[in-house]
């Protein structure tokens, strides 16, 4: 990692950035990214995992809660950002090899950060989780980046259709070795079998052992989410279409994707853990509609007041805050303190038990802890933003 001023920034993690004054810059994308990362910090850091409001939890299996929107929103943003970062350079084919090397390097660093986060603090390679959120971002960034350089938007659209239909057939037609007919159950579906075969149970999600929500096969439709972002960005960059028309048709396309996803849900249920084809369309449609609304407000109408600042602050250091917000609580809990009952606890747990538990009901104490976490990071990121410091990979 390295630090840089905003004027020289190209990417933050998997998310390409540029100075707001540069041609083609989308303020709406920065706001959307910041809102998404802020929500990610909120749901990933409750005070108590045993007490969480339902909208701040993932669906148990089939279905979609607000929390299930966050990760695909981020991958959608990765797709949009790739277009704005690479569209000009891709026209010069002599630059493609150089760009691919940069994409490979950034993907490797992202995966490395995810692996480090999974290993810390024990660094036990025998049980480290190989898949993960940063690992999936790295793979989607890598595959979509190369696809954008080497394919047209029409080819990308056909590829998206092929991925969604093909994934549906794989999951609901292909028998599962050692299990029997195709099924969509957590531990016995084709993706879970493939993860156990290639990665081994010791390297999967610790809460399940037998399957992983960021598994190998599910990366295929996750690339579809990135492709939706790429197609959206290429539409927004059309120079021959006025802004109002762009927004109107983007809303139409978003609505169509949502409806199609809900229809497809009838036989291939909306499911975040499996990243089903219906889920790709449903959530991708919501993401496109959200970006269209922000594009109209921020970039077309010019509403860029104080309300955008917290989201911009989060958005420009997205990967940094995501990575550190997972690391810092573990660091704090390595500092041991003794409670009044004589029990030894980590500093983070002690702070929560001291400041929140006595003053709120259990579920509201958990929510208050999560909100304070968001605000603390907002303060840190605000200082970094004011000093024009962005950490990039």
TrEMBL record:
InterPro entries: HGSNAT_cat. PANTHER family: LD22376P. The keyword Transmembrane helix applies. The keyword Metal-binding does not apply. This is DUF1624 domain-containing protein. It holds the Pfam family HGSNAT_cat. It comes from the Bacteria. The chain crosses the membrane at residues 69-87, 108-127, 133-150, 157-174, 215-236, 248-267, 279-298, 310-328, 363-385. Residues 25-245 form the Heparan-alpha-glucosaminide N-acetyltransferase catalytic domain. Keywords: Membrane, Transmembrane, Transmembrane helix.
């Amino acid at each position: 990692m390295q630090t840089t001023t905003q004027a020289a920034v190209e990417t933050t993690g998997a998310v390409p950035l540029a100075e707001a004054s540069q041609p083609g810059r989308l303020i709406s994308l920065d706001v959307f990214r910041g809102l998404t990362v802020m929500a990610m910090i909120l749901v990933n850091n409750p005070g108590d995992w045993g007490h969480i409001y339902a909208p701040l939890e993932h669906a148990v299996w089939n279905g979609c809660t607000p929390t299930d929107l966050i990760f695909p929103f981020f991958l959608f943003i990765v797709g949009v950002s790739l277009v704005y970062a690479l569209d000009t350079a891709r026209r010069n084919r002599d630059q493609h090899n150089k760009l691919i090397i940069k994409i490979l390097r950034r993907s490797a660093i992202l995966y490395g950060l995810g692996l480090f986060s999974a290993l810390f603090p024990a660094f036990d390679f025998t049980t480290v989780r190989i898949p993960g959120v940063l690992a999936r971002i790295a793979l989607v960034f890598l595959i979509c980046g190369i696809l954008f350089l080497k394919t047209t938007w029409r080819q990308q659209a056909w590829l998206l259709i092929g991925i969604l239909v093909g994934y549906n057939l794989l999951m609901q037609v292909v028998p599962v070795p050692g299990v029997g007919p195709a099924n969509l159950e957590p531990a016995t579906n084709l993706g879970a079998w493939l993860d156990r075969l290639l990665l081994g149970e010791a390297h999967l999600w610790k809460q399940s052992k037998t399957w992983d929500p960021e598994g190998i096969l599910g990366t295929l439709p996750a690339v579809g989410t990135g492709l939706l972002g790429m197609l959206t960005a290429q539409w927004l960059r059309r120079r021959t279409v006025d802004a109002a028309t762009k927004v109107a048709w983007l809303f139409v396309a978003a609505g169509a994707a949502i409806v199609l996803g809900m229809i497809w849900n009838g036989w291939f249920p909306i499911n975040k853990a499996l990243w089903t084809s219906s889920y790709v369309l449903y959530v991708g449609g919501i993401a496109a509609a959200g970006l269209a609304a922000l594009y109209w407000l921020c970039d077309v109408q010019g509403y860029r007041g104080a309300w955008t600042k917290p989201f911009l602050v989060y958005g420009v250091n997205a990967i940094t805050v995501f990575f550190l917000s997972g690391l810092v609580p573990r660091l704090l809990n390595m500092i041991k303190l003794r409670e009044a009952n004589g029990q030894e606890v980590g500093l983070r747990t002690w702070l929560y038990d001291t400041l929140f538990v006595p003053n709120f009901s259990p579920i509201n104490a958990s929510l208050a802890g999560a909100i304070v976490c968001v605000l603390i990071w907002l303060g840190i990121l605000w200082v970094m933003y004011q000093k024009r410091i962005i950490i990039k990979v």
